[in-house]
Amino acid sequence: MKGAVVAVKVVHVSDLTGREGDKSEFADLEVRHPDFRESIQLEALPSEIEGLLKFAARVVQIDYTAPGAHSPQRLFVPVDDFNAAAGDKDMKAILMEALTAAHAERARAAGDGRKTTRPGAAGRAKVNYASLEHAGEPHRGLITEAEKELVRRNLETVNARLSRNGMRTIDPADPKIKERYGIG
Fold this sequence. Notes:
This protein is α+β, with helices and mostly antiparallel strands. Helix content is 33%, strand content 14%. The protein has 6 helices and 6 strands; from the N terminus they run E-E-E-E-H-E-E-H-H-H-H-H.
């Protein structure tokens, strides 16, 4: 059979049902199932998952490690229920402050040449301007989106603290301040 032509036919099938289809018809699914530690990639036809999409809700994924536990438990909580856990505080502000603090700690660790963070490590304390304690204070460098958001949402509180500490307050009528903090 010298010189014979061999053809190869690739058949795409759904990981869920085994139904065949053209590659362009398949949707990619990234599945995070509570019975598996890692996410799993699947391909499926849209018609196979349309019923699930009707019930999709916005949820927050939480990896909760109870005191004394050795591994986390993954929880999926509706966004409104999660936000309600903050009581009368603003959950977005809480999350933004935590995220900014984590970024600052990573930057501080990288600047110190450390690969991991060490609580209580000696060194100059960095000011977190994206916290209610320091937002709006004069400082060098860029004003982060987190700081801008805190100032916009808490202008009265920020100005009261600045005034108490003998610092300039934030005048929302000042064009430079409006641009700096995105007020308007």
